[in-house]
Amino acid sequence: MKFLKLIMIVFVINVISMVSVAQEGDGQICVRAFEDRNNNTSFDANEPLITQGVGVNLMNAQGITVGSKLLSDSPTAAQGVVCFQQLLVGDYTVLITSADYSAVTSMTFNASVIPGSVPIRFDFGGQLIAGESSSTASTTTSTAAADD
After folding, report:
1. Contact in structure between 111 and 29 (CB atoms under 8 Å)
2. How many C-beta neighbours within 10 Å does residue 80 have?
3. What's the distance, CA 123 to chain centroid?
4. Distance in angstroms (rounded) separating the CA atoms of residues 92 and 69
5. Nearest one of 125, 122, 128, 126 to 141, comparing CA atoms
6. pLDDT in the model for residue 19
7. Beta-ladder partners of 125
8. pTM greater than 0.90 (yes/no)
9. What secondary structure, in 3-state letters, does the chain show?
10. Which pairing describes strands 81-87 and 101-103: parallel, antiparallel, or unpaired?
11. Cα–Cα distance between 107 and 73 in angstroms, integer?
């Protein structure tokens, strides 16, 4: 009987420790944005990263927005990356918006954060909307004007 009580105590302690780890919020979901110039939905070595003009919303399983970020405000914007960190275990939906880029890839992604999981990363590929300017486009224009 004492042995059974000891097993139950160990079991309860293990369950409590797993619940407390799950509540700490160690999940991470990131989005990397790139200009998909060849329209193949994959990030290729010659395609530039997008560093501004993209917004990312994170919603929980109930559809409630739990985070909203602009790529240009991200500390990793130079890498084309925006992340949501310290996420609790659960299901999330990532919604990407942009007035500057038309989507080549999906603008909505679903992810499940589980205990001990590696960071989740989605790639968003977009093409610059005609009439918008990027640093690459303005460099090309400047070079062409200098040749005249």
Report:
1. yes
2. 23
3. 8
4. 15
5. 128
6. 43
7. 34
8. no
9. CHHHHHHHHHHHHHHHHHHHHHHHCCEEEEEEEEECCCCCCCCCCCCCECCCCCEEEEEECCCCEEEEEEHHHCCCHHHCEEEEEEECCEEEEEEEECCCEEECCCCEEEEEECCCCCCEEEEEEEEECCCCCCHHHHHHHHHHHHHC
10. unpaired
11. 19
pLDDT in tens, 62-80: 999 999 999 999 999 999 9
Give the tokens for residue 138.
Answer: 């303005």
Place of tokens 């299901």: 91
Token couple for 62: 């109930």
Q: Which two tokens stand for residue 97?
A: 């918006």
Q: Which two tokens stand for residue 40?
A: 């193949």
